[in-house]
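[audit] Reproducing an earlier prediction to check determinism. Same input, same settings, fresh worker. If the tokens differ from the archived copy the diff job will pick it up downstream; this log only records the rerun itself.
[audit] input (141 residues):
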Amino acid sequence: MCPQTASRKTKRLLPFAAALLLAGCATTISPIDTLRWRGKGISAFVADAQRMPDIVRRNCVKNNEVRDLYAWRIEYYDVRQAYVGQSGNVQYYQNYRHYVGHEYRIVVTKPDGTILSVRDTFFGNADKEYGCEEYREELKL
């Protein structure tokens, strides 16, 4: 393969790689959950989740619209087995959970508590995406 062909292939793959990286950083909307919960109150979502949100951000401003964010941390584990011992023909294994990471389930609401959308993020910055940081800086001044 000549060097020009390899150069063309990398030029073609570069935009796709950049798009994949950017798509992974942002929050993604969960369409089924959004259709189910849109227009309902946040109290119903909290009751269904059976726990209070881990993070609450109020008065986030994006595109001149005020939004509130409620986030639940969801931890992910792999279940693995470890060999413990053997007695005769029987081998004993122990299951254990190995922590692999977490994501946040984010509910975006109007200031009155009406749900607009349900989103997921693995490593995105929802505060920055929804303008919560800028609003907090303005309040400090």
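[audit] rerun output stored. Observation attached for the diff report: Residues 3-140 form one domain.
[audit] end
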